[in-house]
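Cross-check.
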Amino acid sequence: MRIPFSSDIIAFATTKKKRWTLLLLAGALIISIFFLLFTNYLVKELSHDEVEKVKAVADAYQQIQSHPNDVTKQVQVIQATTIPIIVTDKNDKVDIFKNVDTTGKHDPHYLDKLVKKWRFFNKGIKMTDDQYIYFEEKEGITLLRFYPYIQLLLISIFLTISYIAFSSSRRFEQNRVWVGMAKETAHQIGTPLSSLMAWVEYLKTAEELPGEEIIVELEKDLQRLQIITERFSKIGSTPELLTYNIYEVVGESIDYLKSRISKKVHIYISEESSKDVYADINKNLFGWVIENLTKNAVDAMTGVGEIKFIIRQSKGFVIIDVKDTGKGIARSEFKTVFEPGFTTRKRGWGLGLSLGKRIIENYHNGEIFVKDSEVGKGATFRIRLKLAEKGSLVKAASKFEIN
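Predicted model, tokenized:
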């Protein structure tokens, strides 16, 4: 298993975007087909009564012509209808019309145009071999005919806007990851590099040769640069997991940071912690997580406060709690703090916790989360790893990887 990051995140985001695009298109197609069929059914049902009334009129006309001496009932049927109708011959010449308002219509072809318009929606009903009757359907039924197409157009516009917005959002997130990764690299290198530059300036002005203490500090910073190089080289590769004493690994990370952060911050491992707990970890990467949690806590306390580590074992797991006295985290942000780009600092880049979560969960198959927090009083982060037996051999990385 390798740590999915940078290019892996972008490839995953691209695949996810394609999947969502296809799902949206399929959903829109299903909805459109459903409404089209349903609307056609409604139109057919609603227009049925009108068609039956017009057919009754057509039958009445036929009976009038067949029985010119018995027309009372037929005339009543024709007079009772309120549907606009036009009767034409086989050449579409208008013979008679009813309920058609021709007031102010000076166009001599007005009725002919109405016949063509009505014929577009409903075919004429045959009265005799030489006559056809056409009618005007209700406006509501006509609107229903066009409704699914209008709806399809609106859905298409909505999907287009959603796709553009989603694509812009993904591009922004990808750019934020790349920028964050670059800044995280600079940040990691910056601490030992600044220390080395300070030692160089000191040596330039020193009248005596450096003592052993100074040489030890220089070696520590050089080792730190080597560790940082190894950390970044392991991203995208398959580093090994070894069994380590977690108390000692956390202690080493704390010792390095103590001399490089504010003296007003008290960092320590609680006396209630277990000193003999082991887990299978990659020491460099796990130390990176501890450092990120510590630096975030220091920033949350604005350089003044206390950071306490509590290490213990419980039910087959190693539990590491990191408790600070900073400004705390709102409950609504317990999960979002691990998203790339989340930060409460004006100059932050918000990648440390996101990277830490990927290292712990995707590589060590553990957990990291906000255990509890109170705004204005501090927060507690918890890491949980599987407990290992002391003296275990090298553990090969499992084939676990988040898809």
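The radius of gyration is 40 Å. Helices lie at 7-66, 72-80, 110-121, 139-205, 212-234, 246-258, 283-300, 352-363. Passed to J.P. for a second look.
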